[in-house]
Amino acid sequence: MYPAVALPTTKTLLIAAMLLLLIVGTRANGQDEKDPHRPACTSARCLRIKSFLKTHYCGAAVGNGPDDSCEIRPPKRPGKDVKVTAGFDCKWVEDARKCEQRGQPSPSVRSILIGELRRLGLPARAPGQIYFTEWESTSSGWFLAAADYDYLKGDDLTLCEVIAITDQNSHVHVLRKVPFQKTGAVKPEVTTWSAIDLADVDGDGHIDVILEGDAYEDHWLEVDSVRDGSFRTIFSGLGYYL
């Protein structure tokens, strides 16, 4: 009689174990899906990129998030093969962000950027300030150009921004954009972007664009691969959230 009882018990334990593994796996996958900025990184190329980013742009662990969370630390200036024509620095002074433009983009790049901001809804006589970035990748011949508009009034922040690459024929490929809009100054409900560096992150001999995404209390890195004037995102992750 005992074997007749033992056999179903063994099957039951096996089924329970399989169901447990399935639930755990589903939960793990669900966690990845719930954080679109940090999808699973398992391929050799992705791990190589992640290692490069952690080495060059990550500080100490901070906030919540996965075990590899880190404070994002942009370099003081882009890589050695990058010519900086224009950029700006921002500091917080008495709870207000103060920015200073350093250098000016070329007239053609400035015109391109202003045109892109207009397409995103920026009025011709908006009261805020536009800050420009222009970097030339000397090894590849293309430019990274960005324009950031913001205007703070009371508790409201109005902003608009564009990050693009332009080739030597002034063909524009927009990497990131934020349409003209008003949001809260203390708790913005919009994702903004900033260029971190230009570097070959995966060792394939091509220069990539490293960007930081900022969604209020969520910060992460993204990498765009640039080939023949076109681009695609090849990594998203790291950083931290609160």
Question: Can you give a write-up of this model?
Answer:
There is one protein chain. With 242 residues, the chain is an alpha+beta fold. It folds into two domains: 34 residues; 200 residues, no CATH class. 25% of the residues lie in helices and 41% in strands. It is built from three helices and ten strands, in the order H-H-E-E-H-E-E-E-E-E-E-E-E. The strands form two sheets. A six-stranded antiparallel β-sheet has the order 2-1-3-4-5-6, covered by helices on one side. The chain has a four-stranded antiparallel β-sheet with strand order 7-8-9-10, covered by helices on one side. Strand 3 and strand 4 form a beta hairpin. It is globular, with a radius of gyration of 23 Å.
Give the CA-CA distance, first to last residue.
Answer: 59 Å
Largest sheet: 6 strands, antiparallel
Note the total helix count.
3
Q: Let me know the average pLDDT.
A: 85
- The low-confidence runs, each spanning 5 or more residues with pLDDT under 50, are 1-8, 12-32
Structural class by helix and strand composition: alpha+beta
SSE run? HHEEHEEEEEEEE
What coarse outline follows from CA principal-axis ratios?
Answer: globular
What is the rounded Rg? 23 Å
Sheet with the most strands: spatial strand order: 2-1-3-4-5-6
Helix content: 10-25%
> What share of residues are in beta strands?
35-45%
Total domain modules: 2
The count of strands amounts to 10
